[in-house]
Amino acid sequence: MTVNEIAKVLEELAPLAHAEDFDNVGLLVGDPNKKVEGILVTLDTLENVVDEAIEKKCDLIVSFHPIIFKGLKRLTGSNYVERVVLKAIANNIAIYSMHTALDNSKMGVNAKICEVLGLKNPEILIPRAKSIKKLITYAPMADAEQIKLALFKAGAGDIGKYSHCSYSLEGVGSFKAENGANPTVGKVGEVHFEKETQINLIYSFEKEKAILKALFEAHPYEEVAYEVLTLENTNQDLGMGMLGTLDNEMDEKEFLLLVKEQMGASVVRHSELLGKKVNKIAVLGGSGAFAIAAAKKAGADILVTADLKYHDFYQAENQLVVADIGHFETEQFTKDLLVDYLTKKIPNFAVSLSESITNPIKYL
């Protein structure tokens, strides 16, 4: 398989269009057409990780964090980022990053945290706004079903656990073909009335290009009438953080100790305990102070996240407990998730879990 073919497999799990605007995801180093012999999956791409890839004969590194985040003005090896890129290029190793594309995936970073903590019925905590679109188009009645099938195949009409969702109305359309036109029905210079079906479907924004291409290819008219609207509906399958429940209520301290053990945290920093049982748990891997308000609104008893500053703990306001277990600790199981995913999607292919320790934070 080539780098590009493996990238397409990864995009099935986490489309790059789902990444945040500030992020740098996708293929960061290497030739997309290069044939891949082995994949090394890591949380961070550091020099020791590249060394490990060389040792294991892996020529593609799939990394959660992007090694190139800000623009590079030179490559002289003066810092760890430049040294990683130079070493990867020198050894013909490609580097692909997923980061917030995987953060926003319903089966991504936060789903893995829920799995490790044993949380049930996980739902997106902060659904992505303005990510659902609606296509309205008009077609001759005889062609409507064929057009709908083409649009479904391109990814339109998916809602939660349902597919092939649409709504149709019947009516009469009119048009007049002017000189130079080549109408499918009607005659040039005459107003024509055609019994038509109005087709309505929704879709996730990243599928728009493929869906419009399918529409134009399947539609019989020379000029296709269509409308695209951005909806206010929230996307239940896309967004940051997750909210789940415990099988049985627990004491706050008991649960935090469980988190510490299951997530391998050296320290758990938390806001004041409220002295009550907990059941509804919010999680957000990585820096999650921005999720405190959403966790409170959702009625979470505890938010498990990382990178909280001093004043962030005040935001708990005795409505929930916020717990900071460390950035690395919240995201460390992401590489296990990716290894499992790639092994299932491309069996009989060499996929290795990086053994390199990349956590830059140490504790006494």
Overview of the molecule:
This protein is α/β, with parallel strands linked by helices and 364 residues long. 27% of the residues lie in helices and 27% in strands. It is built from eleven helices and 15 strands. The chain has helices at residues 3-13, 47-55, 80-90, 99-103, 109-117, 144-153, 208-218, 252-262, 292-297, 327-331, 334-345; strands spanning 26-29, 39-42, 60-63, 94-97, 120-127, 132-140, 167-176, 191-204, 226-230, 239-251, 269-270, 277-287, 302-306, 321-324, 351-353. The strands form three sheets. Strands 5-10-12-13-14-11 form a six-stranded mixed beta sheet. It has a five-stranded mixed beta sheet with strand order 1-4-3-2-15, sandwiched between helices. Strands 7-8-6-9 form a four-stranded antiparallel beta sheet, with helices on one face. Strand 12 (277-287), helix 9 and strand 13 (302-306) form a beta-alpha-beta unit. The longest helix is centred in the C-terminal third of the chain and has 12 residues, at 334-345. The mean pLDDT is 97.
Let me know the largest β-sheet: 6 strands, mixed
Question: Which percent band covers the strand fraction?
Answer: 25-35%
* Counted beta strands: 15
Mean pLDDT: 97
Radius of gyration: 25 Å
**Order of strands across the biggest sheet?**
5-10-12-13-14-11
One letter per element, helices H and strands E, the order comes to HEEHEHEHHEEHEEHEEHEEHEEHHE
The share of residues in helices is 25-40%
Which regions have little confidence, pLDDT < 50, spanning 5+ residues?
none
Number of helices: 11
